[in-house]
């Protein structure tokens, strides 16, 4: 059996990658441990820098050969921590929140707006005016909710009381606070109509204005919403108008990466362009080749209005191109790592953006697997060769991004390979036609309808095929909840697969199966504990009461009358699905007695009009739930267990109860403030009750 | 090719191990779906009936022991002290006063029972002493005095606001909405329709259903003579549907029967079914 040396995976050729890894580890550490004083990573950087400097020149004794590497590791780890720490708005001396006094007035520029069920806008705060004092220059972004729509570019003077963005209120909610955290937005405020005035309107950046014009034009040229929304998403990176059904179709067929202008697109363009200039060994041809590709990529980036995802992808590919140009045999991983370094120094929080993660995963997948799979078949002619390239690219990108999309979206598109065969070859044509449509407007306006017509037909066909795929039996496997450990194991499995395939070490294939088994067993363990554990959830439902008791797929719901089905589904639907609830009974609180015994949980529910449950031994052993402002003097009740006030109560009452509980030493849970609470019992373990388990956490 | 043969040449031991791992993977993947089989769901707990609890007297209990003083009183006018004398707690008395201050009126004895903090026991005790003078003829236009008693079923097409409010769970708000809805419809043709009233919780509707009784509709839809405005005002039809129906009528002459309406595409069968009891074809 021959042993192959790897062409690609040679650590010696990838200095950037070796440094990137500690840097990548440092970034989250800087954010996760805000308590650590910033002097520590600074010292770490200092030690690392000096240490590595000292060891550069001299001959290193054999026993100390690793010290240099450790110094570098320390340096870059601390560099990552520092960078992310500094990027965090709270660390800035002139962060606007430090000036957040009551009555403060602000001047800020509107950067983004969006409609939906309510208006939202992001403002870049520029000045803070304390009443009676001089204005101060400040920095930072905030989320505001105006009554009437604002426009991007407007500079407004407004008065607002900023509150921190609240944590998610119910389990399985989208974590809005975290999403905004990594956009460096931490506070929000409501703005009433009388509270602001527009000072001036700064014109949009020319590029942004031009992009908006294109979007409007395309809307007219490609009439069908399902068609123009796909076109604008793929070429211009504009996804706001995507109808829900289209989004779902693409997500469920595994084709949604194509809707995001990301590494895949720019990669396709790169492949096409590099494919054009094969001939010639002379250096000048190579330089020309590189220049053309660079122009092409950045031209495309500018043409599509320079959306952040495009810029990132263009940067990545520029690094790759230039790296290849400088030294033919430079490892492509080095260039990719260098681009990641560069981008993360610009904004370390991109590490946490799903677009960034998917972009890099897709590119890494392509770079690792596509060459391996490409060699499996030799296409007989040039056209098939192009198609085969595209197929292998698509499959490679989908494989590497699959664990992450499975983790985030809880679904597995079974026909992803099929949809890949359709959309990835179609993508370059769609992009090409889009570019033509733009160019024709300036060169030959009368004929703009030609690419528009073709684009209509093409996207229409693609959409139709995807819908057919979506309706195939078992096309989506839903409700797959992957624990973090399983995700890591899956990635390790992919790396192992790459290693095995690259080196032809097929004997090690069982190791891969072993890792997959480990991933699946971890998932089974998570599912089993979730299923077997009795739980009681008191949800956050404003002005209503919603409580679920879930045990092994059966559920009892206690709710107030006026809670609508839609709202209930929105609050509890995802959590219930995750717990595989099959049988379900609803008790309306008004008709239910005050003393409830649900499996292992025993407690009282106090509701207006109820005689107080004054039993000799006090209230329920586990919990006492106050709903809808019961007229109860809790000082006169002996509360055992924990006292819960849900969001159907008035704040005044909650405040009073909290105070009384504090004096009496009771455990008080304020759902309004802390969000939903999950109580869990452990049957298989001797300790009976463990609560509160987590606040609005998931398992 | 060399690499292919290496790929396919697993020894027997390796084959066994590999196959085992494949099956193990599949088993653990699908195992969570079989959890209900191995660990079946327990029976659901019993719902505790309402008012299971006994009111125990403690020295600091909020409700004082009911005294012997009972006298006739008008809940619309009794002072707080009088109410407390009657044995009500300070809280309950305060609630009654506040209710009155906000414009609430007790028109009949049963209205007092609807005060939340008034226990059933207290109500039973006070009921014989409630003295409410009969109000003048300020009732709703459609109130029929013979149905004042709570025990008779409510005629959904004739009952006025007060009668609706005698039902448990229906207050002035819901009563108003039901009446508005009824006005727009021209009368209820089935009990289920009342459940469609905007904002009426299903639980309340289920409670009042047994107490409702139908009577003939008081306004039909003469489909061949009605104007577009009147048609569009009906809750079951949109403006567009009204417009199309009118156009259809103009082009095809009058509608002779229900079948003539079936071909209209914007009118789904479900809507047509709901409209059928109202339609007349003269």
Walk me through the structure.
The complex is a heterodimer of chains A (699) and B (282). By secondary structure, chain A is of the alpha+beta class. Helix content of chain A is 50%, strand content 16%. In chain A, strands 1, 2, 3, 4, 5, 6, 7 and 8 form an 8-stranded mixed beta sheet that branches. A 6-stranded mixed beta sheet of chain A has the order 14-13-12-11-20-21, covered by helices on one side. A 5-stranded mixed beta sheet of chain A has the order 15-16-17-18-19. Chain A is globular and about 95 Å long. Mean pLDDT of chain A is 83; it is low at 683-699. Chain B is mostly helical and 282 residues long. Among the domains of chain B are: 80-129; 150-213, DNA polymerase, domain 1 (Orthogonal Bundle), CATH 1.10.150; 221-280, DNA polymerase, domain 1 (Orthogonal Bundle), CATH 1.10.150. Chain B has a two-stranded parallel ribbon with strand order 1-2. Chain B has a two-stranded parallel sheet with strand order 3-4. At the A-B interface, helix 17, strand 14 and strand 15 of A face helix 1 and helix 2 of B.
Jot down its keywords.
heterodimer, A: alpha+beta, OB fold (Dihydrolipoamide Acetyltransferase, E2P), six-stranded mixed β-sheet, B: 282 residues, mainly alpha, DNA polymerase, domain 1, two-stranded parallel sheet, 41% helix
* Strand content bin of chain A: 15-25%
Largest sheet of chain B: 2 strands, parallel
For the record, the CATH class of one domain in chain B is Mainly Alpha
- Uncertain spans of chain B, ≥5 residues at pLDDT below 50? 52-67, 136-149
Please trace the helix and strand order of chain B, writing H or E for each element: HHHHHHHEHHHHEEHHHE
Can you name the CATH architecture of one domain in chain B? Orthogonal Bundle
The largest beta-sheet of chain B arranges its strands as 1-2
Query: Greatest chain-chain interface?
Result: A-B, 55 and 44 residues
Overall morphology of chain A: globular
Structural class of chain A: alpha+beta
């Amino acid at each position: 059996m021959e042993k192959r040396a790897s062409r690609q995976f040679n650590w010696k050729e990838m200095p950037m990658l070796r440094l990137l890894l500690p840097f990548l580890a440092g970034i989250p550490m800087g954010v996760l441990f805000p308590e650590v004083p910033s002097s520590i990573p600074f010292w770490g950087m200092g030690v690392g820098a000096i240490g590595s400097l000292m060891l550069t020149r001299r001959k290193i004794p054999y026993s100390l050969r690793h010290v240099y590497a450790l110094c570098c590791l320390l340096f870059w780890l601390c560099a990552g921590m520092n960078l992310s720490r500094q990027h965090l708005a709270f660390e800035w001396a002139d962060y606007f929140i430090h000036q957040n006094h009551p009555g403060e007035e602000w001047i800020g520029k509107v950067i983004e707006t969006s409609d939906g069920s309510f208006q939202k806008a992001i403002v870049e705060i520029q000045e803070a005016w304390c009443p009676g004092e001089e204005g101060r220059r400040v920095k930072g972004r905030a989320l505001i909710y105006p009554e009437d729509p604002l426009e991007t570019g407007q500079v407004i003077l407004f008065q607002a009381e900023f509150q921190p963005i609240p944590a998610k209120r119910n389990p399985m909610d989208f974590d809005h606070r975290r999403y905004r955290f990594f956009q460096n937005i931490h506070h929000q405020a409501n703005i009433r109509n009388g509270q602001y005035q527009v000072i001036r309107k700064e014109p949009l950046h020319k590029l942004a204005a031009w992009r908006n014009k294109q979007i409007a034009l395309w809307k007219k040229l490609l009439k069908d919403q399902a068609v123009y929304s796909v076109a604008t998403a793929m070429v211009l990176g504009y996804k706001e108008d995507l109808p829900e059904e289209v989004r779902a179709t693409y997500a469920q067929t595994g084709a949604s990466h194509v809707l995001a202008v990301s590494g895949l697109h720019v990669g396709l363009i790169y492949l096409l362009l590099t494919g054009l200039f094969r001939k010639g060994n002379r250096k000048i041809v190579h330089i020309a080749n590189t220049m053309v590709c660079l122009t092409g990529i950045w031209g495309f980036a500018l043409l599509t209005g320079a959306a952040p995802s495009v810029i990132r992808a263009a940067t990545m590919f520029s690094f790759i191109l230039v790296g290849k140009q400088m030294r033919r045999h430079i490892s492509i991983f080095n260039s990719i790592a260098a681009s990641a370094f560069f981008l993360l120094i610009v904004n370390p929080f991109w590490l946490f953006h799903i677009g960034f993660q998917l972009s890099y995963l897709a590119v890494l997948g392509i770079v690792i697997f596509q060459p391996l799979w490409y060699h499996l078949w030799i296409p007989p002619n040039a056209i098939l060769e192009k198609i085969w390239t595209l197929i292998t690219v698509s499959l490679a990108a989908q494989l590497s991004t699959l664990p992450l999309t499975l983790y985030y979206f809880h679904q597995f598109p079974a026909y992803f390979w099929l949809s890949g065969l359709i959309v990835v070859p179609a993508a370059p044509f769609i992009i090409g036609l889009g570019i033509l449509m733009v160019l024709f407007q300036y060169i030959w306006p009368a004929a703009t309808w030609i690419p528009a017509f073709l684009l209509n037909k093409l996207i229409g066909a693609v959409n139709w095929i995807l819908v057919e795929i979506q309706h195939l039996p078992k096309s989506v496997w839903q409700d797959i909840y992957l624990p973090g450990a399983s995700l890591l194991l899956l990635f390790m499995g992919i790396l192992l697969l790459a290693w095995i395939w690259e080196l032809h070490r097929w004997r090690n294939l069982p190791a891969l199966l072993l890792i997959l088994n480990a991933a699946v067993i971890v998932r089974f363990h998570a599912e089993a504990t979730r299923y077997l554990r009795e739980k009681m959830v008191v949800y956050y439902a404003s002005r209503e009461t919603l409580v679920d008791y879930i045990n092994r797929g059966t559920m009892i719901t206690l709710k107030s009358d006026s809670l609508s089905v839609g709202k209930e589904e929105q609050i509890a639907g995802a959590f219930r699905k995750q717990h595989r609830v099959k049988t379900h009974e609803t008790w309306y609180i008004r008709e239910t007695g005050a003393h409830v015994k649900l499996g292992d949980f025993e407690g009282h529910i106090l509701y207006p009009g109820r005689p107080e449950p004054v039993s000799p031994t006090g209230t329920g052993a586990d919990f006492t739930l106050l709903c809808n402002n019961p007229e109860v003097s809790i000082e006169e009740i002996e509360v055992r267990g924990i006292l819960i006030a849900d969001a159907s109560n008035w704040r005044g009452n909650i405040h009073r109860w909290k105070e009384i509980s504090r004096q009496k030493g009771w455990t008080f849970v304020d759902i309004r403030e802390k969000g939903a609470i999950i109580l869990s019992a452990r049957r298989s373990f001797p300790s009976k009750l463990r609560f509160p388990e987590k606040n609005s956490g998931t398992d | 090719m060399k690499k292919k043969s290496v790929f396919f040449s697993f020894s027997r031991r390796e084959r066994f191990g590999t196959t085992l791992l494949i099956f193990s993977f599949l088993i653990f993947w699908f195992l969570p779906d079989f959890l209900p089989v191995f660990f079946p769901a327990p029976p659901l707990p019993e719902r505790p009936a309402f008012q299971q609890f006994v009111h125990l007297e403690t020295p600091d209990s909020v409700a004082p022991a009911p005294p012997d003083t009972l006298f006739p009183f008008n809940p619309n006018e009794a002072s707080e002290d009088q109410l407390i004398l009657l044995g009500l707690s300070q809280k309950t008395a305060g609630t009654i006063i506040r209710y009155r201050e906000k414009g609430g009126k007790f028109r009949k004895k049963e209205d007092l029972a609807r005060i939340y903090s008034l226990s059933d026991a207290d109500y039973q005790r006070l009921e014989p002493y409630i003295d409410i003078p009969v109000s003048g003829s300020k009732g709703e236009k459609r109130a029929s005095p013979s149905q004042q008693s709570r025990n008779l079923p409510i005629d959904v097409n004739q009952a006025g606001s007060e009668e609706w409010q005698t039902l448990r769970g229906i207050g002035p708000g819901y009563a108003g909405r039901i009446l508005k809805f009824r006005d727009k419809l021209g009368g209820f043709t089935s009990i289920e329709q009342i459940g469609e009233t905007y904002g009426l919780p299903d639980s309340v509707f289920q409670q009042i259903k047994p107490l409702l009784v139908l009577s003939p509709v008081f306004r039909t839809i003469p489909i061949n003579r009605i104007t577009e405005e009147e048609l569009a005002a009906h809750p079951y039809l949109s403006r567009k549907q009204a417009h199309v129906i009118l156009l259809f009528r103009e082009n095809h002459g009058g509608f002779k029967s229900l079948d003539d309406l079936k071909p209209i595409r914007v009118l789904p069968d479900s809507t047509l079914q709901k409209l059928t009891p109202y339609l007349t074809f003269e």
